[in-house]
Amino acid sequence: xxxxxxxxxxxxxxxxxxxxxxxxxxxxxxxxxxxxxxxxxxxxxxxxxxxxxxxxxxxxxxxxxxxxxxxxxxxxxxxxxxxxxxxxxxxxxxxxxxxxxxxxxxxxxxxxxxxxxxxxxxxxxxxxxxxxxxxxxxxxxxxxxxxxxxxxxxxxxxxxxxxxxxxxxxxxxxxxxxxxxxxxxxxxxxxxxxxxxxxxxxxxxxxxxxxxxxxxxxxxxxxxxxxxxxxxxxxxxxxxxxxx
Length: 244
Fold this sequence. Notes:
This protein has helices at about 1-20, 50-55, and strands at about 35-50, 60-80, 85-105, 110-135, 140-165, 170, 175-180, 190-200, 205-215, 230-244. The chain has one domain (about 30-244): Porin (Beta Barrel). It has an eight-stranded antiparallel β-barrel with strand order 1-2-3-4-5-8-9-10. The radius of gyration is 25 Å and the shape is elongated. The chain has two helices and ten strands; from the N terminus they run αβαβββββββββ. By secondary structure, it is mostly beta strands.
């Protein structure tokens, strides 16, 4: 065992300086290409955090669950230096999440359970600063961070409501309303921060993972609520792509 450990240490002593010489974490040289365009496709999983359990009168319990959606679009790498790139993009996103609300009424003693799904479509514009490290000529690591802006274009809120009133049980009732419109409770514009990492192989093929954290309160105010409604979007995104 001692000989094995000494052999490993000797190998690392020889290899590490060579690897360090090849990997430049801050290569400030001028890039060969100023602009690089690419396409991206992704599976996402999204949710909406809210304070309805305390803000809505009679709300006894809430549960929001992550649900799958998709994202597709284009990006443009503006290569400032070999290690630094600005990457604006334009995406079409579909976001989903399920929810369950349990509400009681002190007036008539009724109890209501709403079980539903919220589905929405957005145009997203991220503007990321991307730190690039070339491990080899054909293998690059990327670390991304920057703001994004969401513009809601369509969406709906479908739910089944089951109510129990003392002495009377009502049947399940399925309802549907707009997600953003005058009947909806969500604002059509949002912004936040996107962060994540990715790999580019052979200077063409991309794979990455990112987290998107909404910073704007996207829930509309409701008259008569004991406190202000508050809710924020959040999503994970798993992407593949191709650079031209």
